Amino acid sequence: MNSHSTVILRRNLASALSRRAIPEAAEILAQLKTQDPLSQETRTLELEYHFRAGHKAESGALRETLLNHYPASPRVQYLAGRIEYGEKHYKVALEHFEESYRLSPHAAVQRYRGKTLTQLGRFNEAEAILEPMAGANPECLADLSWLHERRGDLDRALAAAESLAAHQGRSEFARSLVQRLRAKLLNPAELLEEVENLTALGEKVPEEIIIRRSAALLRQGQGKEAREFMALHRGRLGGRAVVSLGWECYKLQAFDLSFELFLAALPDHPSDAKLLSALEKSAEMCNRLNDVFTAYKHLAPHHRPLFGRMKRLSTRLRGGPST
Question: Which of 37, 105, 216, 258 would you call most buried, defined as having the most Cβ atoms within 10 angstroms of its Cβ?
Fold first, then answer.
């Protein structure tokens, strides 16, 4: 039988996790494990703690253990799905979400079913789930906006984003989403006019406008102008925008620019295999592989998979520094 103090600790831990109060959750979990270390409830909360804290190795190992011991737990299935979703293993994530929903229908699971179907490109199925949910949960409007953007329907994507902004008032996320989609709908001439108007008024140029204007200049073959524009505005970009601009430059084969942007983003994305491969390709195209090797060497003690990439780079450098 559960003691009163154990029940309270579980409740407090769940609350801390819902608030993303990770240090507080760690302290409560330690107390809970001294009282009730082996129960399903404690171990499931421990899995959620590791997931929320970003402890990939711990959450991965515990997930497999709990799936083996408690396959009929909807919470374990849901958390397993969230972990796989975060790793971009969308097919496996969907299997867990489907099983969790079958065991115990819940709105949070249903939402992630819709989000995962969107990531898999199954847009009609995703819309059938997310559209009815948006009335009761405005956060689903963000999911619908992404769905329509993935589908290529920017007008509907913007409409969903504007509805989200209306619901959430001063939400910075909603505001930036609207700005980004409005920027995507502008043609090159309109982008230039928007930049000039904002500059003349002394107002900050939104990140998405900077990204779209830079890409438009590159696409028009105006590389010099693009580089001057980026040099002027790049310092205003946050981490996610730097990565987004890096991908735009990479797709347009402006490898010197994508190299600089991906290299700047590397410390925040040392485990992103897709970004690392693009960084190395960009570096190779502008003869900067030595710089990538040096950056990996600095980060590798804390991100050990980079040692393998260093070894491969050393071979490609033909006599460059070895591991």
Answer: 258
In the predicted structure, residue 173 carries a pLDDT above the cut 60: yes
Phi, psi of 58 (to 5 degrees): -65, -45
Q: What pLDDT, in 10s, does the model give residues 115-152?
A: 999 999 999 999 999 999 998 899 999 999 999 999 99
Residue type, 4: H
For helices 273-285 and 239-251, give the axis angle rounded to 10 degrees.
50
Q: How far is CA 136 from CA 48, 106, 113, 131, 193, in A?
A: 25, 13, 17, 10, 39
Residues 301, 307, 312: CA angle, nearest 5 degrees: 160
* Torsion angle defined by CA atoms of residues 273, 275, 277 and 278, in that order, rounded to the nearest 10 degrees: 160
- What DSSP string runs through 46-101? HHHHHHHHT-HHHHHHHHHHHHHH-TT-HHHHHHHHHHHHHTT-HHHHHHHHHHHH
Residue 4 pLDDT > 90: no
CA dihedral 94, 95, 96, 97 (to 10 degrees): 50
Of 73, 283, 175, whose CA–CA distance to 81 is shortest? 73
Q: What is the mean pLDDT of the chain?
A: 91
The Cα angle at residue 214 between residues 212 and 218, in degrees rounded to 5: 115
**Residue closest to 60 by CA, chosen among 38, 30, 87, 37:** 87
Q: Would you say 25 and 52 are in contact if contact means Cβ atoms under 8 Å apart? A: yes
Q: Please check the confidence at residue 202 and state whether its pLDDT lies above 80.
A: no
The reported pLDDT for the residue numbered 319 is 60
pLDDT beyond 70 at 269: yes
66-97: buried (b, 16+ CB within 10 Å) or exposed (e) per residue?
A: bbeeeeebbbbbbbbbbbbbeeeebeebbbbb
Which pLDDT belongs to residue 186? 78
